[in-house]
Design goal:
Layout (H helix, E strand, L loop, with lengths): L21 E3 L8 E4 L22 E4 L5 E3 L8 E3 L19 E4 L5 E4 L6 E7 L10 E3 L5 E4 L6 E3 L4 E3 L4 E12 L8 E3 L1 E5 L2 E5 L2 E3 L9 E8 L4 E7 L8 E11 L2
Parallel strand pairs: 1-2, 4-5
Antiparallel strand pairs: 2-3, 3-4, 6-7, 8-10, 8-20, 9-19, 11-12, 12-19, 13-18, 13-20, 14-17, 15-16, 15-19
Length: 258
């Protein structure tokens, strides 16, 4: 009778805390995946030992927590981008624009958007007091100065009394000035400024004055919806027999909200 001896060998490989590290263009990887662009001698990683910040400046890494580092071998967040110069990040999804900010929705999805106060235009004017005899809606032109937050966006023309808005959205309009009349003496008279968009009236204010000798200095504030490149102008309503027919000081402000 033949006797067979069967030897069964069980091999247990215990991997406790041992990770494979892959280095591309480097023999000294510090994370699970470590790519060294070696764009210059100064930025080339050493074969062993510590990697300096300068040497890591052109590196891309992924560590064992799934964090990605660009320009660093030791990312401190899920995406850690480090650069010695401005403009290290670029997101181009057609929503980008000058002076826009990256905003998040409720789900954390980001997009470029214009924010309140990021754009404004101001027209300031002073005129020799003139009491107009015609009864008309008169556009206020010939402002003295124009101020715009960014000349590369929208426009403002003091001579023509026009403001061109750069974004679609809501804008705060502020009109302040000095109105008077010689039509009704010291009897009540109306001050009626108006805002036009592309030649069409979109808002009117109303205020009552009581002394043509001193006039009145009201301030009007409203919020209006405009579209990108709309032309905004200011008028004063002098059509009524009791309407103010003189404005000799005015500030016209258009400010983007959202």
């Amino acid at each position: 009778m033949k006797t067979f001896t069967i030897t069964v060998i069980f091999i247990f490989i215990l991997n406790n805390g041992i990770y494979s590290q892959i280095g591309i263009n480097t023999t000294n990887p510090k994370t699970l995946l470590h790519i060294d662009a070696a764009s210059s001698v100064a930025a080339t990683n050493p074969p062993t030992g510590t990697i300096s910040a300068t040497q890591a400046s052109d590196d891309v890494v992924i560590d064992n927590q799934g964090s990605v580092g660009i320009g660093t071998a030791a990312p401190g967040t899920k995406l850690d981008i480090r650069s010695s110069s401005v403009g290290a990040i670029r997101i181009s999804d057609t929503s980008e624009g000058v002076n826009k900010m990256l905003l998040s929705d409720a789900n954390g999805v980001g997009t470029w958007a214009s924010v309140a106060g990021s754009w404004f235009a101001i027209l300031n004017g002073k005129w020799t007091p003139t009491y107009y005899t015609s009864y008309a809606m008169r556009q206020v032109t010939g402002f003295s100065t124009q101020i715009i937050s960014n000349p590369a966006q929208g426009g403002a023309n003091a001579t023509n009394g026009t403001i061109q808005v750069p974004f679609s959205g809501k804008y705060r309009i502020t009109i302040s000035g000095h109105w008077g009349t010689n039509r009704v003496g010291d009897n009540p008279y109306k001050i009626v400024p108006a805002v036009y968009r592309n030649g069409v009236i979109v808002w009117t204010g109303n205020c009552i004055g009581y002394s043509n000798t001193w006039g009145l200095n009201p301030t009007f504030i409203t919020v209006l919806d405009f579209n990108q490149n709309d032309i905004i102008t200011m008028y004063t309503d002098e059509t009524g027999t009791s309407n103010a027919n003189n404005i000799d000081d005015c500030t016209f402000v258009c400010e983007f909200l959202h």
